[in-house]
Amino acid sequence: MKLHISDRLPPLKPSSLPAPGRRAAERPETGARGEAIAVAHLVAAGYRVVARNWTVRDGEIDVIARAPEGDRLVFVEVRTRWRGAPVAPETTVTRPKQRRVERLARIFLARNAQRYAGMMATFDVIGVWLPDEEVTHVPCAFEGDVGLR
Q1: Does residue 149 form part of some domain?
Q2: I want to staple 72 with a disulfide (CB 3.0 to 4.6 A). Which of 44, 67, 114, 143 is the partner?
Q3: Cα(32)–Cα(78) distance, rounded to whole angstroms?
Q4: Residue-number span of the structural domain to which 40 is assigned
Q5: Per residue in 62-80, pLDDT tens?
Q6: Which CATH number covers residue 53?
Q7: In a domain, 110, yes or no
Q8: How many domains does the chain have?
């Protein structure tokens, strides 16, 4: 599904283009743009964003959202790549990264136990290709045990 929200985002600066030999994901502006596109995709699909860039000492969860049906809390990892990258962005979430997101989700839920009691939790991955803003949303991309239900 292609989603273009260029009219709502500032244009990319030439400095945000990946330098030769440097990964695009290392550029903060590239990642922020990908996350903004992913959030717009989620909202358009009926999700309600609970938190963006939720950070604790151990790391960060890119997006936390409530699914359209309302009984599922979704922890979203967003990956952004420029066209020409050797692999699709949504395929780059490694097992250690999955475990880290799972651990952070447990912390989030422990801190918000009453608000989200009884909800199912899932882990989605959203890949964003730049500059054409193509979005690939992979629901339930990996399993994690966060102690709900």
Answers
A1: no
A2: 67
A3: 10
A4: 6-142
A5: 999 999 998 899 999 999 9
A6: 3.40.1350.10
A7: yes
A8: 1
Segment 121-144 shows an average pLDDT of 94
Q: What gap in Å lies between CA 110 and CA 112, rounded to an integer?
A: 5
Side by side, the strands of the sheet bearing 120-130 are 48-56, 59-66, 72-82, 120-130, 134-142
Residue 116 CB coordination number (10 Å): 18
111 token code pair: 């801190």
What is the reported pLDDT for 29? 85
Which residues have a Cβ under 8 Å from the Cβ of 30 and sit 6 or more positions away? 16, 18, 24, 80, 82, 130
Rounded Cα–Cα distance for residues 127 and 85 (Å): 12
pLDDT per residue over 92-114, tens digit each? 999 999 999 999 999 999 999 99
Structure tokens at 39: 């959030």
Residues pairing with 134 in the sheet: 2, 129
CA distance 18 to 37: 18
Hey, what are 13's tokens? 């600066």
